[in-house]
Amino acid sequence: MADLNAAGAEQNSIGWRFDNTYSRLPDAFFAAAKPATVKAPRLVILNHQLAQKLGLDFNGLSPDAIASLFAGQDLPSGAKPIAQAYAGHQYGHFTMLGDGRAILLGEHRLPSGQLVDIQLKGAGQTQFSRRGDGRAALGPMLREYIISEAMFALGIPTTRSLAVVATGEPVYRQTAQKGAILTRVAASHIRFGTFEYLIARRDEANLRVLADYAIGRHYPELVNLPNRYLEFFRAVMERQAKLVAQWQLVGFIHGVMNTDNMAISGETIDYGPCAFMNAYHPDTVYSSIDSGGRYGYGNQPAITQWNLARFAESLLPLLAPQQDQAVALAAEALNEFPALHKQHWLAGMRAKLGLERIEAGDQELAESLLAWMQENEADFTNTFRDLSEAEYPTGDQYQDASFRAWHTQWQLRLSREERPNSSARTAMRALNPAVIPRNHRVEEALAAAEDHDDLSVFQRLLDAVTKPYELGSEAAAAAYRQPPSDESTYRTFCGT
Ligand code: AMP
Ligand code: MG
To answer: Does residue 99 carry a catalytic annotation?
Structure first.
């Protein structure tokens, strides 16, 4: 390893601007942490575009120095590593948790002035590791990298992935796997569960400190409102309602919507057993441990509301002096969720169908297309894209009578729009993706990286999914648009 002074001097030119506001909060919020020493860190991938957006320049660093940095071996100047405390409802059951395998290096100030968390995931044990090893495997970290970057390209709020390093050490799961560390960038890592942690400890003083901190960081427009805690709850609900609608509109299934995986910022966080649906069916579930389908595709809005109820419960002492008064306020706000979600979902569906005007029958039009898809096991992504491509979509599946009937109805509806159909289709092509991270393609890319140290398959897929609206060459389009012939046995696993 380079000597410390050299590393420090090299790092000064990177552009880090740490200002660690979270670690200045009271002790109850976190524990000091130290990334574990790892044997032979090796850079697997670095997100140059993201680095540039963050105002960071790694060009002056050798690959070894970059690997050492993102393995937490040479900490950036200004970093103050901590593990954050939180709790959460996991599959409905409350547990005290905390960062068991993630270490927050601190908050970096962007050129825009915004602060973002820089976190190492898989960097070793912390005070919250319980029986876990604090480590992560290469496959799941690359999985988070590619899916989070795909989500970003789809315009969906998400944490980002800056780098993955292999540690040169094995991690033991069902089998021995290659260890790795992901550098995650987030608006913050404050979760519903961070609030649940304090209320579980009956620490109302710190609960207020956390709420004020979260409002200041994510909802500064609310800071001076007299009823700011209730408005804060509403604002979080608004972002979550929109987020879950956005997931559904691209066929995304988060897979583990525990309250510790719900961010106050409204970003998608913690890519574990997530997956994109192929054939449309609201009951689609891929997660191996979600046998009841709690976190299935169609259940996601109801679960978001359930999670928001847990969040609201943890805010009760701040909402009103009397408990029953606070409960009434929270319940009233929470009851608005279904309509709020529906509004975002329907607006998104209208756009997917090229509709700008609002008409009463639009919901039915969208729902009857979904019903057709479900009955015919039609691919969710490709159906919308095919509708965007041509006057009449190409493919045998579109020859059946019920589809023709739906298409006629849609054309009739489009004829009442102000723009010509061709302009509607141009708009549709800018928001109905041609390329999503198909599960079998992701698996293939991860297998090449894990088994043969071959990142080329991953790089090609990353390139395709980060330009989701482009069909690319005919060969690429065929490769990336084709769903698997059968995915009935496909299962995803929690990202440990
Ligand atoms: P997740 O399923 O990744 O959201 O993690 C749920 C909880 O388990 C969090 O508190 C994690 O920090 C913790 N955890 C997950 N994997 C590990 C691990 N390998 N070692 C220690 N803690 C872990
Ligand atoms: Mg988590």
So the answer is: no
